[in-house]
Amino acid sequence: MATPLDLIGTGPLDAPEPRTERAPGRSVSARREGRIIFGVDVVSGGAAALAVGTSLAPTLARIGCATALLAWCGDYRRPRVALSAMRELPRLVSRLGVVIAGMAVAAAVWGAADESRGVVVASGFLLLGRFVSFGVLRRLRRRGVISSATLVVGAGTVGRDLMKHLAGSADYGMRVLGVVDDPEEVHDLQLLGGLEDLSAVVCRTRAERVLVTFGVTRDWRLIEVIRNLPGANLEVLVVPRLFEIGTGEYTADDVEGIPLVWIPRRSARAVSWRVKRGVDVVLAAVLLVLAAPALVLCAVAVRATSRGPVLFRQERIGQDGRSFTLLKFRSMRPNGDSATLWSVRDDHRLTTVGRWLRRTNLDELPQLYNILRGDMSLVGPRPERPYFVERFSRTFPGYGHRHRSPAGLTGWAQIHGLRGDTSIEERVRFDNYYIDNWSLWSDVTILVRTIRAISRRDRA
After folding, report:
1. Quick count: other Cβ atoms within 10 Å of Cβ 181?
2. Structural domain spans, the chain
3. E strand or H helix at 440, and its extent?
4. Cβ-based burial of 171 (10 A; exposed 0-12, middle 13-18, buried ≥19)
5. Would you say 386 and 417 are in contact if contact means Cβ atoms under 8 Å apart?
6. Cα(319)–Cα(334) distance, rounded to whole angstroms?
7. Residue 387 or 52, more confident
């Protein structure tokens, strides 16, 4: 399945450059719009409670469940360009249906009063409230109370059409600051800088939203500047290529028939990232307790069969380029070149026990402590040594972008067989795909497939 970034093409990426300018904060207009929609939703839920004549506790439960689910799905953070309540109805109905089903199941299992009827009524009021909130937002946009400072990337035909439509209607809530493109492509527009200057332009203008169109610029350059944009809360929307023949499920919004796809950034998934960290801590702690006998046996085996320390400590590079000390059971004879010598499958430095530990992946168990400390996550790109990070960043485009996510005990690349002495180029592609399309469910999938892969390898 294609991803939102795939819609503008793929290509090589360079490692991100360090940024020195101040990054913009969260979009003020987006924050205001989200608060207005949330407030109207709460009022709608209260009105529904009065309509069905229920007590305070069930009312709060209904409102809380509905708004919590909508907040979890990013409904109050997602940027909206064209305010269309009808377009949002299918999404709202499906999510409210989950709340209704949950209430009915709770009533059946725990013998509580069936509140599903009240939730149905509340859902109807919530849908009506969405029409009201969008009407309020549309009026505020027309008066200029809510307006996002916007940059347009690309001065081609699509970029020019976008600027013309946005300038002609305040309903979209965007104030175009200017265009960013290569100078030779712009002759009659407000040029704020070249494509390589986009990050600096965003910081200088305090832009809240970036619309990325396409022109003669090569796709890989567009992907690079998108991934390197400063400010985790900057809203980025992309015009997909070949949109004239349809974009299907990815079409989230449009400006006069020009579709715009929202590219979620880290802050848009902030709650999910915190949940991911919480799951890491709980599972790592539980696994450490359950694996205690295996940890002791492995330690005894390493100590009894070869000289040297039980644990192997090595500097690795994790999220945002930060270094940390990775722990493993020692599987090799002590040597002084482990930081710069690439390990291969039949490495002569492996001990007999070490070979077995690697085959069963038991040598990785001490990294559960790294996860508890916050150095790593259960799932993410595997961390590498500084020497090889520097080399690979120069050799393999996009390698540095792997550090946008916490390093992991297992990952999307590993479950596809990319572990040990395998293609770095393919690992880069798999790791960046994982980061760009991350979700909690993808982590669950990777963990399940990791367990299955290990069990199959043990039976082989």
Report:
1. 24
2. 5-24+144-268, 28-142, 270-459
3. helix 440-459
4. middle
5. no
6. 28
7. 387
**Residue recorded with tokens 């979209």:** 172
| Confidence band for 364, pLDDT divided at 50, 70 and 90 | very high
Q: Name the residue with tokens 């300038």.
A: 167
Reported as a single tens digit per residue, the pLDDT across 331-341 is 888 776 776 77
- Class of the domain covering 5-24+144-268: alpha beta
Handedness of CA 167, 170, 171, 174 (dihedral sign): positive
Q: Which two tokens stand for residue 58?
A: 């069930």
What residues have CB less than 8 Å from 48, skipping those under 6 apart? Answer: 62, 118, 121, 122, 124, 125, 126
Contact 410, 442 (CB under 8 A): no
189 exposure class (CB count in 10 Å sphere: 0-12, 13-18, 19+): middle
User: Per-residue pLDDT tens for 415-435?
Assistant: 998 887 788 999 999 999 999
Judged against a pLDDT cut of 80, whether residue 61 lies above it is answered with no
Confidence band for 7, pLDDT divided at 50, 70 and 90: very low
Q: What is the CA radius of gyration of the chain?
A: 26
Cβ contacts of 337 within 8 Å, gap of 6 or more:
none
Q: Would you call 159 helix, strand, or coil by DSSP?
A: helix
Instruction: Read off the pLDDT band of 385 (50, 70, 90).
Output: very high
Instruction: Kindly provide the b/e burial profile for residues 204-241, where b requires at least 16 CB atoms within 10 angstroms of the residue's own CB.
Output: ebebbbbbbbbbebebebbbbbbbbbbbebbbbbbbbe
Paired sense of beta strands 258-262 and 235-238, if any: antiparallel
Mean residue pLDDT across the chain: 80
Whether 57 shows a pLDDT value over 70: the answer reads no
Distances in Å between the alpha carbon of 51 and those of 38, 105, 459?
20, 24, 62
